[in-house]
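Progress note, project year one: complex with zinc ion.
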Amino acid sequence: METITNTKGMLADFVEELPKVELHLHIEGTLEPELLIALAQRNGVDIPYKTIEAARAAYQFEDLQSFLNVYYLGASVLREERDFYELTLAYMSRCKAQQIRHTELFFDPQTHLANGVALAAVMGGINAALRDAERDWHISSALILCIERDRDPQPAVALLERACALGGIAGIGLDSAELGNPPEKFQEVFKVAKSMGLHRVAHAGEEGPPAYIWQALDVLDVERIDHGVRCLEDPALVRRLVDDRIPLTVCPFSNVALKVFSRLSEHNLGRLLKAGLLATIHSDDPAYFGGYLSENIIETLSDLDLTAEDALLLERNAVEAAFCTDQRKQSLLRDLDQYGASYRNLL
Ligand SMILES: [Zn+2]
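Model obtained:
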């Protein structure tokens, strides 16, 4: 069988229409400057940027913390249930345009609660948009509640229980400032999440050391690692991740914007795949990092001299890593296989 060859133009064409799965996406990170400014005006929230251009110019970061400061400021304009609906529907319409067939979204309820927004408003708006996108565009989705690791772990269990009572939560995640906030601080809430039958993921090994990835696996019993790019520093950890087929949800544009790698051509995605790791590509906070899922895949594969066949592998990995039913996975894999075969026939 002829394999798909790689020029950047062909790769872009191939990836744009490729059926895709997104597994690492913070819904607050999809807040484009246009909506940010509109919501700040509508809700009377005073933010330092008065124009779309000024907001965009502020999206320059030195590290994870400098990004989080801008991200939480942006999230402060989200006040009403309809704000969360509009934000989520705007992202889901991007999914439709980019052939994303299944997406798993993170949200940060503690930020919104601290801003005085009711949990029911946050979840009501997000879940209504997800339902509408499934009905109108056949995009399946799952919602993952993220615990912010730079906050006190103590109230997290009660928050999780309240959110689950409202319905629509598929899993728990751990995000925000990694350094100095090891996964083990959150053992209790992850134990409760498991007892409730929820899926479990955690950001680890982005800025933090491989030890944080071990903790996420052994103490939090996670099923996926978000980022995890620093695992290559520890060969025993790589063996564990390969043997247990633990997915890594890698976000290349994010890693470059936050200086985990100095440029895309230095990203270790190719080495992760070569090591046999179940790596996938996602967009993390696309409004802040310069591109959505298609752009992340196209630019990364192009800069690393990877091919359209690698794009297919990444999407097969993402289907395997997804928290959807086996039936849905079979359907997604069939679409991928058909797409690959029809593209090869054109060559
Ligand atoms: Zn993330």
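The beta strands are 20-26, 100-107, 140-148, 171-175, 199-204, 224-227, 247-250, 278-281.
The two ends are 11 Å apart (CA to CA).
No further modelling is planned for this target in the current period.
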